[in-house]
Write a structure and sequence with these properties.
- The complex is a heterodimer of chains A (about 90) and B (about 325).
- Chain A has about 90 residues and is α+β, with helices and mostly antiparallel strands.
- Chain A has one domain: Ubiquitin-like (UB roll), CATH 3.10.20.
- In chain A, the strands form two sheets. A five-stranded mixed β-sheet of chain A has the order 2-1-7-5-6, with helices on one face. Chain A has a two-stranded antiparallel ribbon with strand order 3-4.
- The relative contact order of chain A is 0.23.
- The model of chain A has no long low-confidence stretch (mean pLDDT about 95).
- Chain B has about 325 residues and is α/β, with parallel strands linked by helices.
- Chain B is built from nine helices and ten strands.
- Chain B has a six-stranded mixed β-sheet with strand order 1-2-10-7-8-9.
- In chain B, helix 1 packs across helix 5, helix 5 crosses helix 6 and helix 7 packs across helix 9.
- The model of chain B has no long low-confidence stretch (mean pLDDT about 95).
- The chains are: A alpha+beta (about 90), B alpha/beta (about 325).
- Chains A and B meet through strand 5, strand 6 and strand 7 of A and helix 4, strand 8 and strand 9 of B.
């Protein structure tokens, strides 16, 4: 099973500089556990007791996972999970 | 239509169908043309409301200095209001925004303080907040947290949409300060059971996300996640492609955030069609393409245009 997880620049120190890694899991929760198993400490930067951390956004196939059930969102082979820091956005 | 002055003509924008881009007569896309505002963007609504609220609160007097972190449209809108109401305006603008924005701001008489490209609007907000702290007499309206921003949409954009499209099923807009989605979304949810409120968020190049650490992240104070039904991240490539489609298919010369919004809207349309459901999807065209011509978004190949947008705050 291969799910691509895209890592923002600021967290690539955990992945040895890789901007994209492959993980597996049936849910986001499992995926992050797998991610943490391969890149220790990374999960804690993304997730806290209440779910995805406040200043982190996680997208499953470009949709914010907070609207897909958060960590219980199902993931499938071929999905892409993108992690990005929350920013103020552009042209306002 | 007749107005006493330019500021009275804010809002009341047309809702235009997109027959060529709509998948079927049962699944229809509609565009609300916010470029038909005095300075050419949806921000004219928020700027008018924020200034009026500040005046009512006694914060502004003739000659007052207004300070605002803005990468363009809000600054331009505020520049008009400031000019006509007798205030001075200072904008904190990230370096990596298009030339036309600076030119317009200066033409209206605003002063510009540049903030570094890396960290984009987060950095502009930080610089503005520290300037405001150093100059207590200045008034920072702060579009990211000012309830008048969202209220402008609750009181104008939402009701206009409902009047023009009572059969609305989805509302899609760009997510920035979140004012448009929060205000319009709250209004529509109160009046249209089951309406979907969908955010289209630009995904920028890596430079823009160049924070020193994750706690430097930023979530606008106006943002209330419960108002949204879903939120999509849209790449510059997809936004550009859709912006060009708006022009080639519907003759609509829109800014790049509109391409971002169209991409999300088309995704919703496809879902509705696949489910055999009718849909009337209203999207916000925040501005026209004039300020983006120098980015090369409308010329050359898509790949060339995408490369040029790398590192830019394109929406």
């Amino acid at each position: 099973m291969a799910i691509e997880v895209r890592i923002p620049t600021i967290l690539r120190s955990y992945t040895g500089g890789q901007k994209s890694v492959e993980c597996s899991g049936a849910t986001l929760e499992e995926l992050f556990a797998d991610l943490d198993g391969r890149y220790e400490g990374l999960r804690e930067r993304l997730v806290d007791d209440s779910g995805v951390r406040r200043f982190v956004n996680v997208y499953l196939n470009d949709e914010d996972v907070r609207f897909l059930g958060g960590l219980s969102a199902s993931v499938r082979d071929g999905d892409t999970v993108t992690v990005l820091p929350a920013v103020a956005g552009g042209a306002r | 239509m007749r107005y006493e002055s330019l500021l009275d003509s804010v809002g009341g924008t047309p809702l235009v169908g997109l027959p060529r881009l709509s998948p079927s007569p049962e699944v229809r896309l509609w565009a609300k043309l916010e470029d038909r505002n005095p300075t050419g963007s949806v921000k004219d609504r928020a700027a008018a409301y924020m200034v009026e609220a500040a005046e009512k609160d006694g914060l502004l007097h003739p000659g007052s200095v207004i300070l605002e972190p803005t990468s363009g449209n809000t600054g331009i809108s505020l520049a008009l209001v400031a000019r006509l109401r007798g205030y001075q305006l200072i904008c904190v603008l990230p370096e990596n925004t298009s030339a036309e924005r600076r030119m317009l701001l200066e033409a209206y008489g605003a002063s510009i303080v540049s903030s570094p490209a890396a960290g984009g609007s987060n950095e502009a907000v930080r610089v503005a907040k520290s300037l405001a702290a150093e100059n207590p007499g200045w008034v920072m309206l702060y579009q990211y947290g000012n309830e008048a921003n969202a209220r402008a949409h609750y009181e104008t954009t939402g009701p206009e949409l409902l009047a023009d499209l009572p059969e609305i099923t989805h509302f899609v807009a760009g997510l920035g300060t979140t004012g448009t989605l929060m205000g319009t979304g709250r209004f529509l949810a109160e009046h249209v059971p089951g309406v979907q409120i969908v955010a289209a968020e630009p995904r920028y190049g890596e430079l823009v996300y160049g924070l020193r650490n994750l706690s430097e992240g930023f979530v606008p104070e106006l943002y209330d996640e419960s108002v949204l039904t879903s939120r999509f991240s849209v790449s510059s490539g997809d936004a550009l492609r859709r912006t060009r489609e708006l022009l080639s298919e519907e003759g609509m010369f829109a800014g790049i955030s509109s391409g971002c919004v169209l991409h999300a809207a088309l995704g919703l349309a496809a879902k509705a069609q696949a489910a055999g459901q009718r849909a009337d999807i209203a999207m916000i065209i925040a501005d026209a393409g004039w300020k983006y011509l120098s980015t090369g978004a409308y010329a050359g190949t898509l790949a060339e245009a995408e490369a040029r947008l790398e590192g830019q705050l394109w929406a």
